[in-house]
Amino acid sequence: MGALVEARLKTTGMHCRSCSMLVDMTLGDLDGVEDVTTDHVTGSTYVRFDPDRIGVERMIAEIRAVGYDAEEQR
């Protein structure tokens, strides 16, 4: 495993804790994602991942696939 990096995503469309749990489970199941925490109130998703195994664009695509929107915050 390579060095882990962190990304912060602005995730929109979530309305409750179940929404944030779905995002966490979706990203957490991806190869290369080490840790993920989503807060539906702030719309923030923090992800620690191995950039040699997965990229931010793939994570955003997976969030969109379950019905929410996301973009990387820099």
Architecture overview:
With 74 residues, this protein is α+β, with helices and mostly antiparallel strands. It has one domain: Alpha-Beta Plaits (2-Layer Sandwich), CATH 3.30.70.100. Helix content is 30%, strand content 35%. It is built from two helices and four strands; from the N terminus they run E-H-E-E-H-E. The protein has helices at 17-28, 56-65; strands at residues 5-12, 33-39, 44-49, 69-73. It has a four-stranded antiparallel beta sheet. A hairpin with a 4-residue loop joins strand 2 and strand 3 (44-49). The longest helix has 12 residues, at 17-28. The relative contact order is 0.32.
Quick rundown:
The protein is α+β, with helices and mostly antiparallel strands and 74 residues long. It has a single domain (5-73), classed as 2-Layer Sandwich (Alpha-Beta Plaits), CATH 3.30.70. It is 30% helix and 35% strand.
